[in-house]
From TrEMBL:
Keywords: Signal. This is ABC transporter substrate-binding protein. Residues 83-96 have a biased composition (Basic and acidic residues). The keyword Lyase does not apply. InterPro entries: Bact_solute-bd_prot1 (IPR050490). Residues 1-26, 69-100 are annotated as: Disordered.
Length: 601
């Protein structure tokens, strides 16, 4: 299992707003106002003071003592930052090869629900901890490790006690609370002085929004856990066998795609003599149709810039009405499953296996799943998302982070050690070309060693980059020699082998080819989406405003109900009434508050 696969999880693994990560790697929809009552006593006056400060922010009544850095006796917190050692050539100023004496840090982490330890190993004694101690002079002690959904709850308790680890992954909500309480180490100088080229490249590839979100009042207060929301924006996947049977060409425009959808519905592409196939895939949350909406320059549930440079809510714009009108037309023509309103994405995927659907907007990795899982003997071809007019379609995505920000407790002696951990992660997980290193620190014998890395940041275009690295080898009529293969990562070498076998007739490897061969989705992301800047990010990248906390859930419900009714046949004027109601019932307040933040960012 790759990091990206684990990131997306079993429930929303293949969906995006990206997710979608859905809002992909951005978890911003999931923020909730914390109003639980936490009772207990702090262990000393200082902790009580900090705890009560946080209690005010969290809306709690008292502080609960919890485990933290001093319990482990391993923390280096509480002193001014210093740096030891000499800089490595090409690395940032002052970042040492190895800290001497060793830096000792505490953290709390989540696991990915996969096997992660060899016999005799545990969270604080495994290949990663041993490597970091022996090679980098960093001793990381994990005071808590468990399911991701429990990490936020556990760290909330730590925050309320005033006893937080030296560093950990904070949700956006926690990030804001910790910063307001003055518990975070400012990282502006630390990042400028010690961030390596590897780290800076990842942040650049992620887009400006993650670093902007981590910056408060001009000060960098956290390191974004970058995600894959941008590379996961959808391409259009179409069943090749149906296209061939009906003599259909690749879609170059939205009208071409609509013609394919009509043909898949009316011309019996599966040859069973029944009208039981549909064109476009649509789920009840409208999540897997975001790319289709984007083709009409409509964007669902994000904040975009209007012509005056102000934030505007995307779902109430006129383009959405046009897109919904087309979906209504397709539904009436039988091109959309009549039961879409009760089917989540997982149920829609089952329709692939039943040979009922022929067009799917999905990520560049969709060939791995759900497509090859549901239709192992059917090849789907990827195409760039088309536009309804001469303006290229821009694909929406949420904030390009995975869950939050790496934060450092105020007073930690060596905050730059967290950047060292991030750089080592990039070197061992992404940049390594040696098989033995891969086996030790990435994956071997079913053990996902990579999950034990204490700091992770995902390369935003890792999957798309594979096709770039394989392109010259796959173009050559000669088999790649040892020298060329040695420059690839172990994963890339494996993918190259799979694709060459596929080209020889091994149909079982079409999923690898669907990502990285010349006809695959990777080149679409690299050569079209990236080169033409086909991305539409959500511009609202801070914590929910008061009106959002109070009213957004009801407005979201009204939005989904309205969109569903329109597709099912309600008058198009229903959209106009929805816009008026949305504004009246809190949307105008949300818009004002969003722009108040946007003007001061």
């Amino acid at each position: 299992m790759t990091a990206e696969e684990a990131e997306k999880g079993k429930g929303d693994r293949f969906d995006r707003s990206a997710d979608g990560e859905t809002r992909g790697s951005g978890e911003w929809d999931r923020w909730l106002a914390i109003d639980r009552m936490i009772r207990g006593k702090g262990r000393d006056t200082m902790k009580k003071t900090v705890a009560w400060a946080l209690v005010g922010l969290l809306g709690t009544a008292a502080a609960l003592s919890g485990c933290g850095a001093d319990e482990a006796g391993q923390s280096d917190g509480g002193a001014k930052s210093e740096t030891s050692g000499e800089a490595k050539p090409g690395e940032a100023k002052g970042l040492p090869d190895k800290f001497a004496p060793p830096v000792k840090l505490t953290t709390a982490s989540f696991n990915y629900g996969v096997p992660k330890f060899a016999q005799g190993d545990d969270m604080n004694n495994n290949p990663w901890t041993r490597y970091l101690k022996e090679t980098a002079g960093i001793e990381v002690n994990t005071v808590w490790d468990g399911p991701r959904k429990e990490l936020e709850q556990k760290t909330n308790l730590m925050m309320a006690s005033g006893d937080i680890p030296d560093f950990f992954l904070a949700t956006p909500d926690q990030f804001a609370q910790l910063n307001r309480a003055g518990l975070l180490e400012e990282l502006t100088r630390v990042y400028n002085d010690y961030a390596t080229d590897n780290i800076k490249q990842v942040m650049k590839d992620a887009g400006p929004e993650p670093m902007q979100a981590a910056t408060v009042g001009g000060k960098l207060m956290g390191i974004p856990f970058t995600g894959v929301a941008k590379e996961s924006v959808p391409v259009v996947w179409i069943r090749e066998d149906w296209m061939k049977k009906l003599g259909l060409s690749a879609p170059k425009s939205m009208n071409d795609l609509l013609a394919i959808s009509e043909a898949f519905t009316t011309k019996d592409p599966d040859g069973n003599g029944k009208h039981d196939t549909f064109g476009l895939s649509l789920d009840k949350e409208f999540g897997i149709v975001s790319g289709f909406l984007n083709g009409f320059h409509a964007y669902k549930s994000i904040w975009i810039q209007d012509k005056d440079g102000k934030l505007a809510y995307s779902s109430i714009q006129p383009e959405m009405k046009t897109a919904l009108a087309k979906l209504q037309e397709m539904y009436k023509a039988g091109q959309i499953d009549k039961e879409f309103g009760v089917k989540d994405a997982a149920k829609v995927y089952e329709s692939f296996g039943g040979s009922k659907l022929g067009i799917y907007y999905g990520a560049l990795t969709a060939g791995f799943a759900p497509l090859s899982v549901q239709t192992p003997n059917v090849r789907w071809l990827p195409f760039a998302a088309p536009s309804i007019d001469d303006r290229p379609a821009k694909l929406q995505h949420g904030l390009n982070i995975f869950g939050g920000f790496w934060v450092v407790k105020k007073g930690v002696k060596h905050p730059e050690a967290v950047l060292k951990l991030a750089d080592i992660w990039l070197q061992l997980f992404y940049l390594n070309t040696k098989d033995d290193v891969y086996a030790n620190y990435n994956d071997s014998n079913g053990i996902a060693h990579w999950t034990n890395a204490p700091v992770k940041i995902y390369k935003p275009f890792k999957n798309a980059e594979i096709s770039v690295h394989l392109e010259p080898l796959l173009k050559s009529p000669q088999k790649a020699d040892e020298a060329a293969l040695a420059k690839l990562t172990p994963e890339e070498r494996g993918e190259y082998a799979q694709i060459t076998e596929y080209r020889k007739g091994s149909g079982s490897s079409w999923k690898e080819a669907s990502r990285s061969d010349s006809w695959g989705a990777g080149p679409i992301v690299n050569n079209v989406y990236l080169k033409e800047d086909r991305f539409m990010p959500d511009r609202f990248i801070t914590v929910p405003t008061p009106s959002m906390v109070q009213k957004k859930a009801n407005l979201d419900k009204m939005e989904l109900e309205t969109f569903t009714k329109i597709v099912l046949g309600a008058p198009l004027d229903t959209f106009d009434q929805f816009v008026q109601d949305w504004k009246r019932l809190g949307g105008d307040d949300m818009t004002k508050e969003a722009n108040d933040w946007y003007s001061k960012r």
